[in-house]
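Practice problem: predict the structure.
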Amino acid sequence: MTEVTTQAAIIPLDNVDPVLVEQLLDRAFEPERRTRTAYKVREGMDWLPGLSFAALDENGMLVGTIQCWPVALTDPEGRAHPMIMVGPVAVLPEQQQRGFGKALVAASLACIDPAAALPQVMIGDADYYGRFWAFSARPTRGWRLPGPWEPDRLLVRCDNPAVLPAEGMLGPWRG
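Answer:
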């Protein structure tokens, strides 16, 4: 993988026209993306502006985005444990393998306050996200989602995974 060029920029996502963001997501994931389980997990929620970014190439063109969402794991006793859902991480197909996605994830995670960090959860490749940012599927084995998912792809990142509930349903955080 080559690194992002020095002329590239990572900017707050709320500085980008939402229509352009939706067009990029359609190109990166196909319009059927809205039927995926990740959309059900964050249904009805607004993305978090302080953790969501866009990547612009050296010509100032939108080539990638990352959004983060407020979600919660509701344990068997009905207690909601707030978390941050990371993703989607989207990069235009012709711009992939240039480091834009990695730069977007790094920018987003760097903005999480370590003094009050909520666990971060995502659906993604465990080898990739584990290698760079310590995401793991180990703590999520007893978790459920509101739709089909591959258990090895439900990942969480937390300084102390022992505090995470062993079981629960992941969904929007209405707290």
